[in-house]
Write a structure and sequence with these properties.
heteropentamer; A mainly alpha; B mainly alpha; C alpha/beta; D alpha/beta; B: mainly alpha; MetI-like fold; 9 helices; C: alpha/beta; six-stranded mixed beta sheet; globular; binds adenosine-5'-triphosphate; binds magnesium ion; MetI-like (chain A); membrane (chain A); amino-acid transport (chain A); transport (chain A); AA_ABC_transptr_permease_3TM (chain A)
Chain lengths: 220, 219, 254, 256, 254
């Protein structure tokens, strides 16, 4: 292969790529935050005594988990307006990714909740706490610490999924990479750099999350 | 929602949608099979390879797992054609999904092999089995049983990821559906429909996986 | 003097299995009652009913004259509201076999939680009370340790402090030493004995017969969901009346 | 030296055309499951010139950003996919002569309050224009109707709905899309008769093969002005609903 | 008669830790040798060297006159090929503390595997031999059970059948009963005793002193990687010569 590499287009556009990366991180962060809320509700739903709640939660989780995220993204962006829910690109993507994250996190939380010893709840009851307070002060904090490693994994895959926002022209990293590509046709260089940015970003995120895990870990 | 119009259009487009579904299945099956084949070697190299091999394979896995599949597909499609490897969009897409699948399977295989107690290998050695025989008759059958559930998960991930090939113009189920939508403007109906089809596909895979799991479970 | 705890004709089933078949019992302030009996006889279940961790189908439990868990509305028996039951639960303190400390909180925060959240105390007031009780169980030095950093015996002492800090009318102990290594049993029993000496009303399930004999004002032998024999420890251990009790005591190491 | 693409294509016996599949009236799969549209017809015109048979084409359905890469890597002989001509792109590939001039137009209901563009403009700020949401949308509308109210919508169908329900007096959109809409709903709408924001659509070929470029240019040129005019005009009528007037006979217009 | 097993000056280290510091030992056909010694003295390691599950740095092991594991090429010591070593491993049978049955195969398939794959026997021939040995260890009724469906003692008996079915020159037993509940120990020891009575050559590590005394023709006491004392069981257990052995025996329950 005698291809002369020329990264100058990429250096010229580094600001765009950086912006795109920033937006991707932002999208992942917001979505996982909202997704955590949805996931918690769904997890408690799946473990609820009420059959209807349980059914709804299980249906939500398995429907979302078995549907390609690209279909969800396109559905939310192009089809929901017909139902009167017309969100702009970025809110629409955040909405989709949150729903998607919620389904995955629900599974994580559910197994976290199931793994908690029953005694914690009873000890809370015994000192007169109500069920809600037990959830807030005991169950959720303990469970969250336990599932932090899988939460980190989820965060990383959500960050990677932000690349799909390019499909509805949300200007994140992949979007700019495609744009630079179409304009300059420096295909190898662009995709090499884009992949590398993702890989490095994932490593960095993983490192940060591990620090966080250590910080939050309960000493033993 | 315009249900009867939707049904008419669905009927009109049935051949295209079926062809798209066929491509989706073909892409998924090809990627999962090739990816699994490759992934087993990746897992073996990770478990039994020497240091440099393990390092190289680790890089391969980390790179693939750190890159969004979408970017991987675009990179495979565009970079390879520039390098002169003349792959069609279909082939490039399958290649990307295969690599993606192999990194997952590699990790699964490594984990499964690591989980088998060392005593198994020793017992096999002590009745005179060679490494190859030990692997084939003792380790692999046990590993397979542990691999199956996660492997089924990977397969559903691949089916879902096959939608990304629409971006490089492979007319799989999603793009076939988008083609219908672009003509009919029935986006709500058709996106719901296609989402449902994917759900069914993955649901079937899951059920099949469970059935096999039950069959081969060790009493 | 009116009794602190009155249990009348208490029945409790799990599905088809009737676990408590009519228990009657009264305790005065300062009483220390030990429940003994073979595995499955219903001791834990009885304690859990008193702490309202289990519903029960028939009979009543009165604490300081207040019927707990249920009210009678013209013949109809209704479970009290969740909030009401939570308040009543705080009137009894429970120490569990498995300690059940909250792993994400330090010792002192474990003790404070009920004070600030159930009793709505201010932080500093709760802190002072928690310190007092940690001192009492000999855990004041470890107040800022997390449960994972404490031995089983130390965890159990914190758990006892947590229960007792709520200022309950009666303390319930369910085999508080049976998850502990033999060397750690002693330090926990010392704490329980100390509380007994101090006049705390206590109902305890134990397999430590020697300890039950030393510490109790009354011993209750349960069998198959009924109270089979009861009396002062000298009588129960010294002159058991029924064969069942004799058999049980012969199998227990003293 | 390599033989010209022209010879390769002739030897092969069919043309490989790159185009999309989800944008009517340019390129889309019709209800008879065939790829159709104005872009497709341009390809068919070239195939007809090559083999005397417009159907001797192998289609490569590609996404927008595959247009240039697929050309340069020889995956396709020719790309006709509503490609806007820009100087930057012209550095990567070679554009043919343009075969359509795109612009923004205004769609109105038949028998509405305002007859045409002049009436809309005269009405000033009384007019509401629906437009597809976009960063430049407002600016773009104001370039034609400086005082009009601009309502931005999220999708094409919502924009048309705004027009239908009278919430908007006109919808501003690509002229091609506008014409296609009129073709699909004959008699309901009309074009206000003003276009702006011009851009040219051309086919593209791999750079460096003058022979092939010339050939395609000639075919397109004769489609628009010469022997193949009926083919071009027919296609134009099908996709844009407009009857083209026959090119002036006599002195060629391009040399005037 | 030439010896079946000859170990000469065997040395083995794990990193810096020298675990075997020069072992010499010979066994004749039909000998039953028990290895005793405190934890960490190197008994398991010795067995594993004989089965070639560990490499060793110095010394040699000869089985039926054939040097195993290594060959000497004009002074240079070379490890034999993997295939060659696999063949030699089959000359010794090993039973492990943890049984190590293959969980995905029935009892009889466990026994057959080595026969069909290492010895390349036909299926039906292997089946007949496997049946014979399962019969012998009293497991014939359970031939189609999976390991998970068997008790520990039953699993161990199948594991012994699996090793012995290979028709090894010598059987190695490494604390085959120490992972078993007390009731299950007896049934396994009965099998081992039966094989000993039958003239099988055996080298066994055991903590069951009474059993070692009954069954062995010779007892070897290991200490810190060396053979500290050896002799007939009557001598070792009845009249131990060194303090070390006396101390060790005093700590072992007989
Ligand atoms: N949640 C439950 N569901 C069903 N049965 C239960 C439940 N909890 C306890 N039981 C049954 O109730 C009976 C009494 O149990 P309980 O724990 O009160 O006995 P115990 O006297 O405390 O025994 P131990 O000394 O073993 O702790 C047992 O047969 C037990 O199996
Ligand atoms: N794979 C290994 N790596 C490092 N050290 C080892 C290894 N296997 C054994 N050792 C060490 O070698 C020494 C001898 O171990 P060995 O298992 O032979 O003792 P043993 O006499 O069988 O003891 P036990 O009665 O506890 O089974 C011990 O100090 C042990 O820690
Ligand atoms: Mg109990
Ligand atoms: Mg050992």
């Amino acid at each position: 292969m005698n291809y002369d590499f020329n990264f100058s287009v990429i250096w010229r556009n580094w600001e765009l790529l950086a912006q795109g990366l920033g937006l991707g991180l932002f999208l992942a962060l917001v979505s996982i935050a909202i997704g955590c809320g949805i996931g918690l509700l769904a997890a408690f739903g799946m473990l609820s005594r009420h059959r209807v709640l349980r059914w709804i939660a299980v249906a939500y989780v398995s429907a979302i988990r078995n549907t390609p995220i690209l279909v969800l993204i396109l559905f939310c962006y192009f089809a929901l307006p017909q139902l009167g829910i017309a969100l702009d690109k970025i809110p629409s993507f955040i909405f989709t990714l949150s729903i998607y994250a919620g389904a995955y996190l629900a599974e994580v939380f559910r197994s976290g909740l199931v793994a908690l010893p029953k005694g914690l709840r009873e000890a809370g009851l015994a000192i007169g706490l109500t069920e809600l307070k037990i959830k807030i002060h005991i169950i959720i904090p303990v469970m969250l610490r336990n599932v932090l490693p899988s939460l980190s994994n989820n965060f990383i895959s959500l960050f990677k999924d932000t690349s799909l926002a390019a499909a509805i022209a949300v200007p994140e990293l992949t979007f700019y990479a495609r744009k630079i590509n179409v304009e300059s046709f420096r295909v190898i260089e662009t995709w090499m750099v884009a992949s590398l940015i993702y890989v490095v970003a994932c490593y960095v995120i993983a490192w940060f999350l591990r620090q966080l895990e250590q910080r939050l870990a309960v000493p033993r | 929602m315009n249900f009867s119009l939707f049904l008419t259009e669905l009927w009109n487009a049935r051949m295209n949608l079926l062809a798209g579904l066929g491509d989706t299945v073909l892409i998924s099956v090809a990627s999962v099979l090739l990816g699994t084949f490759l992934g087993v070697f990746v897992g073996l190299a990770m478990t039994y390879g020497n240091k440099p091999t393990r390092f190289g394979v680790r890089l391969y896995i980390d790179f693939l797992r750190g890159t969004p599949v979408f970017v991987l597909i675009l990179a495979c499609f565009y970079i390879l054609s520039v390098v002169g490897l003349d792959l069609s969009a279909f082939q490039a897409g399958v290649l990307a999904l295969t690599m993606f699948c192999s990194s997952h399977v590699g990790e699964i295989v490594r984990g499964a092999l690591k989980a088998i107690p060392a005593g198994q290998t020793e017992a096999a050695k002590s009745i005179g089995l060679t490494f190859g025989q030990t692997f084939a008759y003792v380790l692999l059958p046990q590993a397979l049983r542990q691999i199956l559930p996660t492997w089924v998960n990977t397969a559903t991930e691949i089916v879902k990821a096959s939608t990304l090939l629409s971006i490089i113009g492979v007319v799989e189920l999603l793009l076939a559906t988008q083609q219908v939508i672009s003509r009919t403007y029935l986006s709500l109906e058709f996106y719901l429909f296609v989402g449902f089809v994917y759900f069914i596909l993955n649901f079937l895979i899951e059920q099949a996986g469970r059935a096999v799991e039950r069959r081969i479970s060790i009493p | 003097m009116s009794p602190i705890l009155t249990i009348t004709d208490l029945h409790k089933s799990f599905g088809d299995l009737e676990v408590l078949k009519g228990i009657d019992m009264t305790m005065q302030k300062g009483d220390v009652v030990s429940l003994i009996g073979s595995s499955g006889s219903g001791k834990t279940t009885l304690l859990r009913c008193v702490n309202l961790l289990e519903d029960f189908e028939r009979g009543s439990i009165e604490l300081d004259g207040e019927a707990i868990g249920y009210r009678h509305d013209g013949g109809e028996r209704r479970r009290l509201s969740e909030r009401h039951i939570a308040r009543q639960r705080a009137m009894t303190g429970m120490a569990f076999q498995q300690f059940n400390l909250f792993p994400h909180m330090t010792a002192i925060r474990n003790v404070m939680l009920g004070l600030t959240k159930t009793k709505k105390m201010a932080k500093d007031e709760a802190y002072a009370i928690a310190e007092k009780w940690l001192e009492r169980v000999g855990m004041i030095e470890r107040r800022d340790h997390f449960p994972g950093q404490l031995s089983g015996g130390q965890q159990q002492r914190v758990a006892i402090a947590r229960a007792i800090a709520m200022n309950p009318r009666i303390m319930l102990f369910d085999e508080v030493t049976s998850a502990l290594d033999p060397e750690l049993v002693k330090e926990v029993l010392a704490v329980v004995r100390d509380l007994a000496d101090d006049g705390m009303t206590m109902l305890l399930v134990t397999h430590e017969m020697r300890f039950a004999r030393d510490v109790s004002s009354k011993v209750v032998f349960m069998h198959h969901g009924r109270i089979h024999e009861e009396g002062p420890p000298e009588q129960i251990f010294g002159a058991p009346e029924t064969d069942r009790l004799r058999g049980f005591l012969a199998n227990s190491e003293m | 030296q390599e033989a010209s693409k022209l010879q390769q294509v002739l030897d092969r016996g069919h043309l490989i055309l790159g185009t999309g599949s989800t944008n009517p009236p340019w390129h889309f799969i019709d209800s008879d499951n065939k790829l159709k549209g104005f872009d497709v017809d341009m390809g068919r015109l070239v195939a007809k010139a090559l083999f005397g048979d417009p159907d001797k084409i192998e289609y490569v359905q590609q996404s927008g950003d595959a247009r240039i890469p697929n050309l340069v890597t020889d995956k396709v002989d020719l790309t006709c996919q509503f490609m806007t001509v820009t100087a930057e792109r012209a550095q990567q590939i070679e554009f043919t002569i343009p075969y359509y001039r795109e612009g923004v137009g205004l769609l109105q209901m038949e028998g509405g309050d305002y007859a045409d563009y002049e009436a809309l403009k005269a009405a000033g700020s009384d007019v509401t224009v629906a437009v597809l949401q976009n960063v430049y949308a407002e600016e773009m509308v104001h370039a034609a109707l400086p005082e009009a109210e601009v309502d931005q919508y999220d999708s094409v169908d919502l924009m048309y709905q705004a027009l239908n329900s009278g919430r908007a007096d006109a919808a501003a959109t690509d002229q091609s899309a506008l014409r296609w809409f009129m073709v699909k709903n004959p008699g309901r709408y009309h074009d206000a008769g003003y276009g702006w924001n011009p851009q040219s659509y051309s086919c593209g070929v791999k750079p460096g093969d003058q022979r092939w470029l010339n050939f395609v240019n000639t075919v397109l040129h004769e489609g628009m002005t010469g022997v193949e005019f009926p083919f071009y005009a027919d296609s134009f009528k099908t996709w844009f609903g407009t009857e083209l007037s026959v090119p002036q006979i006599g002195f060629p217009v391009e040399y005037k």
